[in-house]
Each structure stands twice: as C-alpha cells, then as structure tokens.
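Entry 14. Structure prediction run on the chain below.
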Amino acid sequence: MKTIVILGSTGSIGTNTLDIVDRFPEEFRVAGLTAGSNDEKLEAQIRRFKPRVVALSDTAAAARLQERCEDLPVEILSGQDGLIQVASASEADLVISAIVGGAGLVPTLAAIRSGRQVALANKEPMVMAGKLMQDEARRHGVRIFPVDSEHSAIFQSLEGHRKVDVRRLILTASGGALWPLSKEELHNVTPERALQHPNWKMGAKITIDSATLMNKGLEVVEARWLFDIPESQIEVMIHRESIIHSLVEYVDRSMIAQLGLPDMRTPISYAMNYPGRMPLDLPSLDLTEMGKLTFCKPDHDRFPCLSLGYESLRIGGTMPATMNAANEIAVEAFLNGGIRFTDIAGIIRSTMDLHTIKDIESLEDALEADRWAREKAESLVVALAR
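Output returned:
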C-alpha cells in the first residue's frame, strides 16, 4: 500500500486524486491533506479518508475546522508552516502537488527536500524555479512525475527512448473557450464566457489560462525543466478535440503520442502508480466515432500570452517567475470584473518590461521576484480601472 499526501485536496486535481483513492482503497492510504480556505470540503475529506494531519493556509478556516473536528484523531495545522509540515510528512511515499498558482512552490520544494517523491500537477513551481527544483530533486534522490495531461503524455512518449534521439516536443492545446473569436470579439468577452471550456472541467484560474493560451506558455517553461529539453525544441499545436495530449518527434521523424478522452484521472493514476497502470472504469476512446482530428498553428496575434511564455524562458532568471505572478494578478482581476480579457496580456507584458532580471540561486530569489511582480501588476490593474 502506498501512503500519499495531497497538497490542494479540495481543488479539481485533489478531488480527482481522492476519487482514485476511493476506487482503489487497497492500493492507497491518505496521510495528509491541505487546502486554502475550504474548511467544509476538507472536513468531509477528513471524515472519509481519515488523514493523520491536515493544514489550511487560511488560519480562520483552520480554527473553524478545529472546532468541528474535535471528535476526530486528526492534527489540524494552519498557514504556510502548516502546509510545509504536511508536505514533509515522514510516512508519505508520494506527495501530489496540486496547489493552484505560485503558492505551491514552497510546500512542493519542502516535500522534495524531505526526500518525498512528487507527482506535480501545478505548473507554477517549475515555472518559477525549475532549475532549483530539479537540482534539489537530484540532491535528495527524488523523482518528479508529471500529472498535467500534456506533460504526462510527453513523459509516456519518452519512456524507453534516449533523450539524444528527441527532435522536438509538441504540446497540444485545446485553444480554450475563445479560440473561434476575432481579436475584436475578444475585447468584450465576459468571465462567464471565458470559463466555458469545451473539453475539460477545471478550476477558474486554469480555465482562463487556457483561454488566453498562457496555460501553454507556462507548460513550455515547465516542459523545458521537466524533460531537460531546450526551448528551441518545444512547440505548441492547437488540437481542438483534446484527444492527442502531446507528442514527441524523434530524429528519424517518427512520432509517438499519447491519446485518450479528456479525463484527468488517467494521468493522475499513472503518476500515482508508476510504472504500473490502473484499471479505470472510464469511457474508452473510439476513434471511429471521432471521425476526424484537427490541428493548426497557434495565433500569436490574438493570443499573445503564449509568446510571453516563450520569451520569459529565453530570458531566464527571474523572468518566468515574474511572468507567472503578473498573470495570476491579471487573471484574478479579470475574473473579478476589474479589467478586460485583452488587458491580461498587456499587464503581463508591462510587468515583464519593468522587471530587472537576476539569476535564481535560492528559493528567496524566486519568492522576491514573485512578490515584486505581484505588487507591480496590482498597480497596473488599479491604473487600468481608473
């Protein structure tokens, strides 16, 4: 039996992970869970899965949970220190990192430094400090398993092959909810419209990232560090059906891809049980029913966030962390009605232009760039709202 900890258990990835645990109770035991402020959902998970320890980043939510769980043998922690303690739980064989945004960096790095194997579902830690993450993983003998559907597909397509034989990685993108719209139509898109993803059920932030194509910008940076492949060998292709999750082309021009219906439980289960596969009772892909699969190149004019991702990677240092933080602030402002959809890229662009780059030699360097970029992006949002 494998003992797991889930960072971000109340979100989309966390709940799908617990669905796998529910389906295979003889295979997995939950030792720890963390959440942001959703104490009610976390309470239900505690009562169902009986973890030894949990943490909420919101201290008020943790206090409410403590009152309601006095009858349960569970340790309840709070704040970032609490998240770090859960991430470092000594009994954990695997930590599933699914905290949304840059908030996942510190606890994920804590898990690595504690020697825990990591299944990485959130892109942002690798975007903010990819080299540092991999250096620490090597130092502590930790393997990082990708959970994101695209990176899981690449991981599977690389299995059994030499890295020297890789010609390029091709990340597929659905194009999100707004791909058919013109540049003019994008100007007046509402949050409700942008959240209507055609294929995937995800949280609000990642759904907006999918609509702007920033999701792919982040994934390009993540792929560079996960697979040690240079930016010049990483491409993005629009594939509206979300059936081919990504591809690897080799030097002999053969391609290997991973296909399947869009369901995150497939890549989650592979990371949880690697190298074995789990018999999931899910619908099977019938290519004869699909009829056709379509592909096209990204439109960098309508969706400039993808280019910003590539640019941040080429510049390096603290620029990817800066880009990521500015994006988080801009997306939140859009969801709250403070800016237009087309302002998101502009805020990221301006924040990047104003940033003084430095090398990331420590966790503090990444966190300082994140803090600076959030403050700068927030000031740009305020200026736009006037």
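The chain has 17 helices and eleven strands.
Filed with the rest of this week's runs.
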